[in-house]
Amino acid sequence: MPTARGWREYPQRYRYEAAVCKKCNKWHFPPRLICDECKGQEFETKAMKRSGKILTYTTIRVPPAPFKDQAPYLVAVVEMDDGPRLTMMVTDYRDKELKIGQRVKLEFRRLSDDGDAGTINYGYKAVPV
Amino acid sequence: MRDVAIIGVHVTKCGEIWNKSFRDLFVEAGLGAIKDAGVDHIDSMYIGCMSGGLFVGQEHIGALMADYLGQAPVPATRVESACASGGVALRTGMLDVASGHSDIVLVGGVEKMTDIGGDEATYALATAADQEWEGFNGVTFPGLYAMMAVAHMHRYGTTPQQLASVAVKNHDNGSLNPVAQFPMKITIDAVLNSVLVADPLHILDCSPVTDGAAAAILVPADRVGKLGKKQGVKIIGSGHATDTIALHSRKDLCALEAVSKSAAIAYAMAGKKPTDMDVCEVHDCFTIAEIMAMEALGFFEKGKAGRAVEAGDTRIGGKIPINTSGGLKSKGHPVGASGVSQAVEIVEQLRGESGARQVKGAKVGMTQNMGGTGASSVVHIMEAM
Amino acid sequence: MTVGIVGYGAHLPRHRIKVEEIAKVWGADAPSFKKGLGLVEKSVPAPDEDVITLSVEAARNALVRAGNLDPQKIGCIYIGSESHPYAVKPSGTVVGEAIGAFPGCHVADFEFACKAGSEGMFVAYGLVKAGLVEYGLAIGADTSQGAPGDALEYSAAAGAAAYIMGSKNIVASIDHTYSFTTDTPDFWRREYQHYPQHAGRFTGEPAYFRTVMGASQTLLEQVGMKPADFQWAVFHQPNGKFPMRVGKMLGFTTKQMEQGWLAPRLGNTYSGASPLGLTAILDVAKPGDKIFMCSYGSGSGSDAFVYTVTDRIKEVQGLAPLTTDMLDKNKIYLEYGEYAKFRHKILKAEGV
């Protein structure tokens, strides 16, 4: 079973490592080889702070196969305090009324797995604070 | 660069076409366009297809279709830009003629989506988004558009009823289209009571999974009449632009910049403004997409398109008829074919052949075809000759 | 050299299910379960939580309390659990990668029923004391399952407690430790079985009580201390009753045990049980306080510890979530159906 694709992204999925452009200081997550702001090609690795806010969200009711046991679930576009915007599930929110602007923190969660015998995919989800 | 005209078009029936295969559908469209154009040969072909690989396990589509259309050894190129594959194929074929390199080019699009189950089709469609940073984290394609809708509703006050009225209008038009997948009229209540897919989008806000194909024959504008049977429709503007693959990377979650940019290029090339358009096919993969695209195309101010649809401004006979074909919603969305199928509708409108769907006196028309959540967009403006 | 806890952290799921909700489904008498087991409700891990995720969050809290310790300085990671997500591939490899402790680190997963967490604590402490590592991370975490309708279903819960051991900036020194182990067949799980088995009433006096008493009495003798010398005590808490009873048998008071007594609202977090109780104590302990801890793992064994809290405790308590806050605030209650779905007791069929 191929596992390299997910493994390659552990620094991002596990430690939120971003590439900060040395020329213009823009944070890129995931890291890029060329800055989309100033076209610079030199970066410094920094881990993002685990906090941000919700820009928009929806409830997924028809899930893709890897997530079929989790539906319905919320996904959101989260703007991290360090700048990058990410798409992720929102978890542990049931009794909270979510709204645009809701502050969240990122927690380490199990995203999906490659079946009962395959590897487990871990990553980040947002928890409303 | 030479001016290019379309002299033949064909679109197949759209829907669950059980007895026709991937190659059958394309060949039907291709032969239909060749016959409509009355040409006796073609110089090259461009085929838009989002994912032969995931839907039917088939790649090498250029060669396959050249072979089965009986056109080998002409050069054949498969073009991919997710849901904009057809539109980009049209543009690429146009450039082949405009450059002087080819005289008669077949442009087509095809998708066979029902040989696999719903889950697998959903997966295949989701490859239009960012697989690693959107899909991996659980968001679906409808989910991405739903998030755009939530942002648009939050900022501009667009309502679920306004979204639903896009679908109602498109079904009204589709009920007049013999190739439509879902030619039945629907109501706003029916949309709002249908099952939610990703809040606030209901199943009736979403275009379906469809089999279908479309094709067109392009020739230099100054050879119309010498090469083909009917009047030509000239492509007077063409624009293509890209944006970030992921929705979260967009500058503005409520805007489709690739659409605005591709439209600006097309308007400039054609020397036209939004108010010059008589009829337009817009990429309504979801109702919110039609609303946002119309704003990006300059038909309505940002935030006002929802109200305009509700007021009837985009009906046949309204200020600017949008999706007279029934749109992707009612006519169907065989992904790779849609961009070409939009061109078929506009060509027929500009030829005066749209029957009950005819926009009276239509002289200038537009197609807007978009990939993913707006990461690619291609706009064509056409004029009756 | 004095070795002890440099940083500690806990992490609990937010979901809960009440005893009444489980009893209702099986037609059991809720009040007698509540009274007999001393349980009110238990924590339930969400489908996206497991021992690895709970451990990562607990470890992050421990790193903060350790003074934002550079994770590269951690020389060993031991995670003890009965519900490691992989049978082969240590939970520690994912946790270590997530906190940035690699590649220079010794990692192994531990198993000894409910005392795998305290075992990790003992070994991490030992390696620091031996001078082999500068800092060692030990975690007790579980997302254990109780068989539907079984008594254990009322108590099998989830949570994680993480401890960073070192010899600098200690918040609580480990003064003495003693382990008591025998072959006692009270509770076990065979390979490929989904749920554990237990020997009914045999799990009480000949197993839990004999072992906890044995370890605790011997350690108290070895250090020449009496229960009254301690401000706090925490014992393995498979339910609300056992720890209170054994504590009192040893001579500890309710007052000493109350702070670390989480089972009634948390359930049995297995390898996390006494380690989590200890975090709740550390959250409120004062400099100079002495803490007695004794874990229990079926099979069986107990690890007993004596800790002395240092002045530094006051600087770190508020740096990460308090255990009782996580226990009592922002709870999301589940009905049995959703609980069963969360715990994979019911699954969608193939192809649905």
Would you mind describing this structure in some detail?
The complex is a heterotrimer of chains A (129), B (385) and C (352). Chain A is mainly beta and 129 residues long. Chain A has two helices and eight strands; from the N terminus they run H-H-E-E-E-E-E-E-E-E. Chain A has one domain: Beta Barrel (OB fold (Dihydrolipoamide Acetyltransferase, E2P)), CATH 2.40.50.840. In chain A, 8% of the residues lie in helices and 43% in strands. In chain A, strands 6-5-4-7-8 form a five-stranded antiparallel beta sheet. Chain A has a three-stranded antiparallel beta sheet with strand order 2-1-3. The mean pLDDT of chain A is 94. Chain B is α/β, with parallel strands linked by helices and 385 residues long. Chain B folds into two domains: 4-117 and 210-233, Peroxisomal Thiolase, Chain A, domain 1 (3-Layer(aba) Sandwich), CATH 3.40.47.10; 129-208 and 236-384, Peroxisomal Thiolase, Chain A, domain 1. In chain B, 36% of the residues lie in helices and 18% in strands. Chain B is built from 13 helices and eleven strands. In chain B, strands 3-2-4-7-1-8-11-10-9 form a nine-stranded mixed beta sheet, sandwiched between helices. Chain B has a two-stranded antiparallel ribbon with strand order 5-6. Chain C has two domains: 4-171 and 328-342, Thiolase/Chalcone synthase (Peroxisomal Thiolase, Chain A, domain 1, 3-Layer(aba) Sandwich), CATH 3.40.47; 174-313, 3-Layer(aba) Sandwich (Peroxisomal Thiolase, Chain A, domain 1), CATH 3.40.47.10. Chain C has 13 helices and 14 strands. The termini of chain C are far apart. The longest helix of chain C has 20 residues, at 204-223. The A-B interface holds A 5-6, 9, 30, 36, 55-68, 70, 73, 75-77, 85-89, 100, 111-112, 121, 123-125 and B 119, 122-123, 126, 130, 132-140, 142-144, 146-151, 154, 195-201, 244, 246-249, 253.
Structural class of chain B: alpha/beta
Q: Shape of chain A from CA axes? A: globular
Point out poorly predicted stretches of chain A. none
Helix coverage percent of chain B: 25-40%
Helicity of chain A, as a percent range: under 10%
Characterize the biggest β-sheet of chain B: 9 strands, mixed
Report the C-alpha radius of gyration of chain A, rounded. Answer: 16 Å
Number of strands of chain A: 8
Q: What global shape of chain B is seen?
A: globular
Cα distance spanning the termini of chain B: 18 Å
Which class of the largest domain in chain B in CATH terms? Alpha Beta
How far apart are the first and last residues' alpha carbons of chain A, in Å? 38 Å
Write the H/E string of chain B, N to C: EHEHHEHEHHHHEEEEHEHHHHEE
Largest sheet of chain A: 5 strands, antiparallel
Mean pLDDT of chain B: 97
Q: What is the count of structural domains of chain B?
A: 2
Strand order of the largest sheet of chain A: 6-5-4-7-8
Q: Any idea what the radius of gyration of chain B is?
A: 19 Å
Strand content of chain A: 35-45%
- Strands in their spatial order, largest beta sheet of chain B: 3-2-4-7-1-8-11-10-9
Q: How many strands in all of chain B?
A: 11
